[in-house]
Predict the structure of RNA methyltransferase SpoU.
Amino acid sequence: MSTQLWVRSRTEIKRQRRRKAHSCWDHLIIAPLWPLHGANLGTLLRTCDAVGACLAVPRFPWVPQALEIGNTLRRPSCVHWVNDPLRWLASQRSAGSEIVGVELTDESIRLASLPPARRRTVVVLGHERSGIPAEATALLDVAVEIPMVGTGMSLNVAVAGSLVAYKLAGLV
């Protein structure tokens, strides 16, 4: 028995989505605060648009160009600029945000157990090679691990950040 799938047209898809880009939803912030590769920032910027999140990035000299190249949507996106990642994280936590780190720790919970965000949440992503610095892990409310069955030790930071963003946004 075959089932025919109904494919929605671009017009139907657009009708179900936001009419324009947001300036700042400020409920979910994806924060790759120690990035290594600009391509990952572009991917995360696109994910932020898809899930209704903002992106927080450090003021490294190369980051603006990486975001410009990576912004395939060709419209402004919500970007928060961070001068001092540790101080910024501490201020977010003091202001009542939940700080979620994507990192392997003894207390990490599995991605499947992570509930959707119920309050302002900052997702901290570490350096592609060394992860989240020890000083920053002390600021985390929860650490999330993404289970893997392959031989790799971790996922690309943009992939990991996107998975967690979708989960926290309640879209998976």
Remarks:
- The radius of gyration is 17 Å.
- DSSP finds six helices and seven strands in the chain.
- The CA atoms of residues 1 and 68 lie 48 Å apart.
- The chain has one domain: 22-168.
